[in-house]
Design brief:
The protein is α+β, with helices and mostly antiparallel strands. It has eleven helices and 16 strands. It has one domain: Nitric Oxide Synthase, Chain A, domain 1 (Alpha-Beta Complex). Helix 6 crosses helix 8 and helix 7 packs across helix 8. It is globular and about 70 Å long. The structure holds arginine (ARG). Arginine binds next to strand 14 and helix 6.
Length: 390
């Protein structure tokens, strides 16, 4: 369906050749220093930054500015229900990384820290910030939309195996010589592209991939479905925009809310499409919609996800808890005199919407900076594994 004026991801016009915008730099620095008095007065810093932009077309964030900028981008993320913890983001400053090998090993490190490090399952929100784009120059990036994603294949009978969303990307990886096992949960290789080396493929080591096999608290047959999901959702292809400086490679993660997996990834008809399978095993009458077999299967699939993550000791939240936390976040921010931009269509959970308090109100959608943006070219690379239209 094409809706005029509707975009399925947030974007901003980004002129890659333009110097950093001094006005945006000033807005960001004033906000950053206002909210962090320990950083001292902003005026001397502004003078330095203005001079740097005039001389070089851009400027270099201090570690503190970068760290707070990343947190603000999270705080401003219209679609994220999990923003109560925006201050707790672990910011890894990776601006010195250059080669694809360096970048890849730091991505592995990111996933290990995000997975809980010494305490596997204690998921931590982490962002790794790699070098910013310099005006008019090529930059390093990751093609994948997330650091961990499952391959998708078109089976001989035309039916999909794995994640249908990844079929084109998986085929492109095959074009690079990668061969998956052809199973339902094959972790895709990472494509790290640097200006000097072009795209290079890397297989993630096992220590970087925490996964949870899915079972059900009552249905013993559920485990036979062979379902699993990865513990860390790490968005890899959104550009972090801070004070006029653009970081095209700044992968970030939180922990999962159960419905992302149980009501979308495993349930959507154009993803793993498990509701008919679960309903059949439950013995439900699927001959008519009015038996609500889809809804009943959906609840059990989501119970399975939450129960399995808890059993495995992997941090995850449910949609009731997270909705209540989002209201706490709204109250906190209101007390601080700040608006909370939000997109109702993303904030309301994909099941039991009206059971959650976030359903029963409206929100203002605002394009506040710093922010995360998905560029069209990045979206195309993640979808197709190429920017050429085929
Ligand atoms: N919905 C996406 C997925 O299922 C992940 C988006 C980010 N989610 C998060 N909890 N931080 O993979």
């Amino acid at each position: 369906m094409i809706v005029p004026g509707y975009r399925d991801h947030p974007t901003e016009a980004w002129d890659r050749d333009a110097p950093a915008d001094p006005a945006e730099a000033e807005d960001f620095l004033r906000l950053c220093y206002l909210e962090n008095p320990r950083l001292g007065p902003v005026e001397p810093r502004l003078a330095i930054v203005r001079a740097q932009i005039a001389a070089t077309g851009t400027y270099v964030h201090t570690t503190e500015e970068l760290g707070y900028g990343a947190k603000l981008a999270w705080r401003n993320a219209n679609r994220c229900i999990g923003r109560l913890y925006w201050r707790s983001l672990v910011v890894l400053d990776r601006r010195r990384a250059r080669t694809a090998d360096e970048i890849f090993s730091l991505l592995v490190h990111h996933l290990q820290i995000a997975s809980g490090g010494e305490r596997p399952g204690a998921i931590r929100p982490v962002i790794s910030v790699f070098p910013p784009a310099r005006p008019g120059r090529p930059y390093a990036r990751v093609w994948n939309d997330q650091l961990i994603r499952y391959a998708g294949y078109r089976g001989a009978d035309g039916r999909p195996v794995g994640d249908p969303r990844q079929i084109a990307f998986t085929a492109a990886m095959r074009g690079f010589g990668w061969r998956g096992k052809g199973e339902a949960f094959d972790v895709l290789p990472l494509v790290v592209e640097t200006p000097a080396e072009g795209p290079r493929l890397y297989e993630l080591p096992e220590r970087a991939i925490l996964e949870v096999p899915l079972g059900h608290p009552e249905y013993a047959w559920f485990a036979e479905l062979g379902l699993r999901w990865h513990a860390v959702p790490a968005i890899a292809n959104m550009r972090l925009s801070v004070g006029g400086v653009h970081y095209p490679l700044a992968p970030f993660n939180g922990w999962y809310m159960g419905t992302e997996i149980g009501a979308r990834n495993l349930a959507d008809a154009d993803r793993y499409d498990m509701l008919p399978v679960v309903a059949a095993r439950m013995g439900l009458d699927t001959s008519r919609e009015s038996t609500l077999w889809r809804d009943r299967a959906l609840v059990e699939l989501n119970r399975a996800v939450l129960w399995s993550f808890e059993r495995a000791g992997v941090k995850m939240t449910d949609h009731h808890t997270e909705s209540a936390r989002f209201l706490t976040h709204l109250a906190n921010e209101e007390k601080a005199g700040r608006p909370v931009p939000a997109d109702w269509t993303w904030i309301v959970p994909p099941m039991s919407g009206a059971l959650t308090p976030v359903f029963h109100r409206y929100y203002a959608e605002l394009d506040l900076r710093p922010a995360f943006y998905l560029d069209d070219e990045a979206a195309a690379l993640a979808r197709d594994g190429t920017t050429r239209t085929r």
